[in-house]
Specification:
By secondary structure, the protein is α/β, with parallel strands linked by helices. It contains ten helices and ten strands.
Length: 228
Amino acid sequence: MSIFQQIVAIDFVEQFERGAQSYLAAKKEYYANHANRALECIKGALDRSPRSARLLDVGCGGGDDFHSYLEMGFCNLFGVDPSKSMVLAASKALPAIKISDGKWEQLNFPDADIDIVVGNFSMQYCENIDRGIDEAVRVLKRGGYFVVAVSHPTFDGVHGQHYSGKNSLVTANLYNGKFSVKYPGHSLSEYLSENFFRNFRLVKLTEFFSAANSRAVPSGLCVVGTKE
């Protein structure tokens, strides 16, 4: 089977759908003992934003990050996730927040409706990053913020099970190896593409190491842009 055929055969949502409880339990245990570097980067980018801003978390999972946004004072929060199990878990934990089915490539929000779009290690599951960027551009108001943390392409290439070429696949063992996922491999130029710079002004680009990663290669990348 070719790499392209492997990618097509994988349902990137189904791996979370069937393993939702295991994933959420492993994540909770891991971050009880480790700092969440990606979330720290996102919070830093949001620090000066008005707390009345309409904030959309794409790929919100079980909704864990909403607790931090609420603590920061944000009160107009929305979330989407392509996994029905994750939407159910997040809605149960946070009934006051509107959480619904959705994904980067298809956001069920009107044009120019959102002030801030965030994603914490969710955009890498897109098979076409530009489509995700297009949707973020569509729903954001002019001057709105795009704040995304993703697995660093270099880290994926060095430490993940990575198949190089136009179509690539990464296998990552998360949370001390307690949950394994697959996602399409992406390059830095896919996140910082011509499409990105056509629609956003790059505000900040941060490489970071996970709390458990002491290797020389950064494990994450945080991209912050404002819609032109």
